[in-house]
Known about the structure:
38% of the residues lie in helices and 14% in strands. The protein is of the alpha+beta class and 443 residues long. It folds into 3 domains: 6-86, no CATH class; 116-345, Orthogonal Bundle (Hypothetical protein af1432); 353-428, no CATH class. The protein has a 5-stranded antiparallel β-sheet with strand order 8-7-6-5-9, with helices on one face. The radius of gyration is 23 Å and the shape is globular.
Amino acid sequence: MNKSHQEIVETQLDVAELAIGMHVVRLDRPWEETDFLIQGFVIKDQSDIEALRAQCGFVFIEGRVQKTNTVHEGTNRNQKPSGLRRLFKRKSASEPAPQKPSVPRKRVTYINKVDAGTEMATARIRFEDAQETAKAIMSGLRVGRTLDINNARKVVKGCVESVLRNENALMLLTKIKHQDAYTAEHCINVSILCAAFGKHLGLLQGEIETLALCGLLHDVGKTKIPDEILNKPGALTPKEFELMRHHTTHGRTIPMGTSHSLNTAVDVAFSHHERMDGSGYPRGLEAHQIPYFAKIVGLVDTYDAITSDRVYDKGRASMQALDIIHKHRGTQFDAELADEFIQLIGIYPPGSIVEMINGEVGIVVESRPEHKLKPCVLLVRESDKSVMTPYRTVDLKVSSEDAAGEIYRIAREVPDGTHNIVLQEFVDQGLIVTRPRAPAEQP
């Protein structure tokens, strides 16, 4: 049998001719004018094709073209992502599945039952309960008390139920950071983000609750680490770092000492610092040896740590954290899980302070998987940065227009506190909603 000679080409194609598996590298218009998150992605399913047909007349695809035939055969499977703009690429449905995929097939497809504003009141109660529980667990363990697993399960269940109704509310609350309560707050944030990630992955509710519990308890071993090491503002010495690494061993021992079965939490506390290339600790496990939930918690743990203020480092923007995760996918983090987590968080997660193209500033209150560049935004500052009266909620998905008739678009994310916009104050006053509302008092 003669093999046809092949070469890699970039070809203009009418959107009517698109097929699953093709790698779209250019559009007939700027990427920023569309709903697509990145400049280049692989068509995964029919919904991708429909989105392209709705927004474009033709596109450019990269693929292998047989010179004896004019039919395009999809994508170049060996091509690697090129930078942060490829964070959201999807795997081709035509690629052969690995023997042991790291991300199991979705078993449940969840649909949000309420909007984020409706869920916010309940989410705040669940969040505050979880914070108090986490602080009580940590302080109790420090003085030798037994792990209160019953209360831990209760608050986790409440948080998971909130996430299943609408994950945006609790995810927004994880953006509020307090350095003085880092360890307990970090455990809550990891738990909530794990629940949202489990929902995104299509896990069963019971599995999500277990995963979230693992997130809550993953750092309990730090209660056995001296405060002067935990709160040291500078770099740890090799000896101090070795002591810090022991928190994983302590984290295994603590849940093992309860009367309940916490095998998964034991595995996660012990293994969440293991890495795909075997460079992690405490055992230097290879990728296939690391428990699935430990891979998830290790990934989420890193994201929340990077975006939080700590005694030795200032918190970084969400996109910087995702960039770091993307660069280390496949070596530090499971590649497929990293891609899925990046899809979950998106470019502008709930709670982000964003400046619009016209200079107005607002807070992202709700993000949607299918419209990551077009979230709901509560506008709170005019273009001159004066207080907006009243505040206005705009849904970028429906192409809302400003006073000049221009379509609202986000220009950039800015740090919490910019232009005197403090997320905590808006949450405390109950102003984070996804429908227009004129506040009685404006911070």
